[in-house]
Structures are given as structure tokens and as C-alpha cells.
Amino acid sequence: MSSPALVRHPEDNMPATAALPEAVPPPATTTPATPSSFGTLALRWYRLNQGRLRATAIGVISLLAFLLVWHLLTTYRVVFFVRFTNVPSPLAVYASFTKAIHDPHFLMHVVLSCRRIFIGFSLAAIVGVPLGLVMGRFKLVHEVVFPVAEVLRPIPAIAWVPMAIMLWPTNEQSIVFITFLGSFFPILVNTLHGMSLVDPVLVRAAQCLGARERAIFREVYFPASLPHIFTGLTVGMGVAWVSLIAAEMISGQYGIGYFTWEAYSLVQYADIALGMIAIGVLGLGSSVLIRGAGHLVMPWRSTR
Question: Is 83 helix (H, G, I), strand (E, B) or coil?
């Protein structure tokens, strides 16, 4: 007796996966930003910049405390080893500032000082950095130049004023020369110091790989010396302002240094403080620009 034939339906030939239609996902919708998401982003930004915000807050508090102490000392005419009887108050200096910013002569003094700094400092950087690199690489050049530089380096900028007047035909050129000297030696010494700290293993490795002298300078010595070069540029900028102000006070007819000395001669105490504050702010701005350039040239140090 044969077994009965199995009845097969058309649905039996269909795969199991095709039995039910797949569920269609709902269309994606963009949820608008909620206040909680903005709070999360703000908290993340605060955590990333917490150190900078803390430093900024401390700096602002420090400046406000300095102004408060200055105001109290000048208001009550304190005499305690140091006399504050003739020192102008912060309000008097602010009044002098509001008057000076509308005076074209004060702006001319600031512009001329900045131009002298730019020319003198640029020349010092153009000469000092390559000379320091060459002195650090070639021993003969170091032995020839270093003794002369060490003899001239301790001479202060004020001592160069009479010699600069004799060397250059105009006061403008002599002041730029003194500014150049003031910034040249810090740049040279720091560049030379950076060259002395280059790892000789890196130099030998480059030589074994077939690098020529120019490539070694470009790929090994110069990048390794950049941090010290920018340190020298920052220090040189500060010394350049010191040298410039000394030169303008002695032999200048224009400039922020001359403005400060003229205010002292005319017994305008508020203008003296204004000139000193202007020198500090301009010097700080110049140093900030150099540090910013250093962060752009050396991005690997910005991440530390």
C-alpha cells in the first residue's frame, strides 16, 4: 500500500524571510536643539578652557586690586618710605588719557615710536637669527664673532647715545640704531644657545640618510632652535623698548619717551603716568604678537 501523496501549496515554495513584509523604518526627523544640549556644549567648552578662564579672571582681579591700592595711596597722600604726595591718581591719569587720544601730537608720538621699534627690531631679527645659526654650526665663525659680541653686549643703550649721534647723520637713524643694538644681542645669544642644545644624534642621522648641509639646517637645526629663537625675540622686544625710550628721552624730539620726559619737564604728572602706561601697553602688545607668531610657527608646542 503506497503512502498518500502530500499536498503542496504554492506558499510552501516561498522562503521563510519573505513570509512577512519587512517593517519600514519611520522617516528620520531632526530634533531641534534643546536648552539642555546648549548647556552640555557650554559645560564642555568651560572644561576645555578652564585654565585660560582662571588665568584671565586672576589677571583682571590683580589689575583691579592694583588700581584700588593706587587710588587709596594717592587719595590719602601716604608717605611711608615712598612719597605719594605728587603721584597722580588713576582718575587724573584717565582724564589725561581721554584728552590725549583726541590730540594728534600724542598719536604721532605713539606712531613714531612703533615705527622705530619695527625697523630696529626687524633689522635685529634679520641679522641676529642667521648669524646665531651660522655661529652655532661653524666653529670658526663662532671663534671670530663671539669675543666681539661679548665685549659689546654689556654696554647699556644709554652709553651708545653719544656714539650713535656721531655715527649717524640724523637723530632718527641714531635712535633706530640704538633700538637695533638693544634687541640684537638677546636674539643672537638665545639663537646660539638653541643651536648648542641640538641633539647631535639627529644631525648624524640626517647625514647617514644623505642629507646635505642645507637640508640639515632646514630640517634639523632650525626647527630644533625655534623655541629658543622665539624666546630671544620676546626678550629682545622688551630690551628694544627700554633702549628706545632711553634714546628718545636723551636725543629724541618725538616719540613716547620724549612725550614722557617733556611731561616731567612741564610738571604734568598725569602725563608722566600716561606715558609710562602707554609704554607698558605697547610693550605688552608687541610681546603678545611675537608669542602668537610662535604658536603659528610651532603648532606642536601649542598643544602642550
Answer: strand
pLDDT band at 34 (very low <50, low <70, confident <90, very high): low
Cα→Cα distances 20→9, 11, 195, Å: 17, 12, 76
Query: Is 191's pLDDT higher than 90?
Result: yes
Range with the poorest average pLDDT among 29-33, 108-112, 165-169: 29-33
The tens digit of pLDDT for each residue in 206-232 reads 888 888 888 888 888 888 899 999 999
Angle at the Cα of 37 from the Cα atoms of 33 and 40, rounded to 5 degrees: 160
**Grid cell of 12 as nine digits:** 510552501
Q: 195 with 135: CB under 8 angstroms? A: yes
- In the block, cell 592694583 appears at 66
> What is the domain partition of the chain in residue ranges?
49-87, 90-302
When computed from its CA atoms, the radius of gyration of the chain, rounded to whole angstroms, is 34
3-class SS of residue 14: coil
CA dist list (Å): 34 to 37, 42, 44, 45: 5, 13, 16, 17
Q: Is residue 18 very low, low, confident or very high in pLDDT (cuts 50, 70, 90)? A: very low
**What count of other Cβ atoms lies within 10 Å of the Cβ of residue 227?**
15
Q: Looking at domain 90-302, which CATH architecture does it have? A: Orthogonal Bundle (1.10)
Q: What is the pTM of this model?
A: 0.80
Angstrom distance (rounded) from CA 224 to CA 219: 9
Q: How far is Cα 245 from Cα 182, in angstroms, rounded to an integer?
A: 11
